[in-house]
Give the backbone structure.
Amino acid sequence: MITLKDIAAECHVSVSTVSRALNETDLISPEVTETIRAAAERMGYRPNAIARSLKLNRTGMIGILHDEAMDHPFFSGMLDAIRLSAEKRGYDIMLLSRKQRNSTADSSDTALSRRVDGIIVVYADVREDGLDRLMRNQIPVVSVDDCSRPCPIVASDYENGTRLLTQEALRRSHRRIAFIHGESGISTDRRIAGFRAAMASAGLQGELIPSHFYAGEDCASLILNRLRQADAPSCFLLPDDTTALTVLSILQRSGLKVPQDVAVAGFDGQRWVCALAPRLSTYRQDLHGIGEAALDTLLATRAKGVVRSRSEIIIPGQLIPGETL
């Protein structure tokens, strides 16, 4: 392995001069700097990442704490958005599940041992003592979507997104509208608020039907059962696009036309929705914007040196009117 001492011998300068040249200081002339860097490149020198991280107190590594069931396209898209944002800023990412496989160690222990520069929590349940341990060691934490933690939060504009979808349904003359929602949490609670606000503005109440995320068959069954009743809604807002895809398929196999017989809308804005026939009405969340904001907030928190702070950044999305409402 080529060392600074080897480069110094090659260029007939001191080791300290080589170090200054490779670390972009202005204490030596441009000519000497260029000579040293050319020699380092020619000799195949690579910096010692561990030694450099100890010197700079920076590893260039961001930990992503995620749920172990992250195979859904929306979640994987979120991770990819964070990865791209990190790469643009010269950082690598390390994926940390809630519990490391074949180990009783909490993911916070792994984060501490790997000396990550910060943690982004993406849709994961995290032990409070683990978060506290990270913060006591001056490791900043940013949460995507969970407002219960003592750290900055970045979230999609769930309330306005559902308000826009409901308003679009109202604009298309629907008056009996139901919202089939997922489990309680920041996204569901704010989407319910947006739904109620839009319906109230039209002098209507709307119907709330509890269900689950990514439960297409269950949601389709709820719709079919509700359609058999005299006061059935003409429009159903669904928890997510993946659920909507399954619901559309089951409704069509049941002989129902969408939106002529019943209208539906998804949520998330997966790229494939435009390929459906009819095109799915939905709300597209800005994954790239959420990923960038999460990383920018994390790095800003690290720069301030204040790891225990509360703030919230809401990232707007886009209504996709589609053809299913």
Residues 101-105 have pLDDT under 50 and may be disordered. The radius of gyration is 26 Å. The first strand starts at residue 61 and ends at 66. Residues 82 and 291 are 4 Å apart (CA to CA).
